[in-house]
Design goal:
The protein is mainly beta. It is 5% helix and 50% strand. It has 1 helix and 9 strands, in the order E-E-E-E-E-E-E-E-H-E. It has one helix at 104-109, and strands at residues 10-16, 22-29, 38-47, 50-54, 59-62, 71-74, 78-86, 95-101, 113-118. The strands form 2 sheets. Strands 3, 4, 5, 6, 8 and 9 form a 6-stranded antiparallel sheet that branches. Strands 1-2-7 form a 3-stranded antiparallel sheet, with no helix packed on it. Strand 1 (10-16) and strand 2 form a beta hairpin.
Length: 120
Amino acid sequence: KVYTVMCNFDFTGSASGSASGLSLTANVQVATADAGKAGYIYVGRLMNNHWSLNSGGGWVAYNGGAVPIYTSGMLSSRQMQVFNNENVQNQVGAQIYVGYGLNEADMLFNNKYKLVHTIQ
């Protein structure tokens, strides 16, 4: 399959608090060509060279295979609460990534993901 992507998508993060009570909101700007299509949003954490992904119900270790989905539905630009006043002191240095795609291959092939925050 060949996927075509319009490059007007973006991801940002807005954090407040400290590692003992971090709130992190991820902002997803979906490409115009993808808006209104069925798709998936992914949230990942890279820490000590190990990935874990948020399945919408919590973080799960990722060791290959299908990428756990944070949420699915019609794609639209949105804000998502990744952490809400959570103690993440044991995750200092972890990098939080957000991505989306019509499917996993679309997200990976078209680089529709980005680092949005590093836990300090």
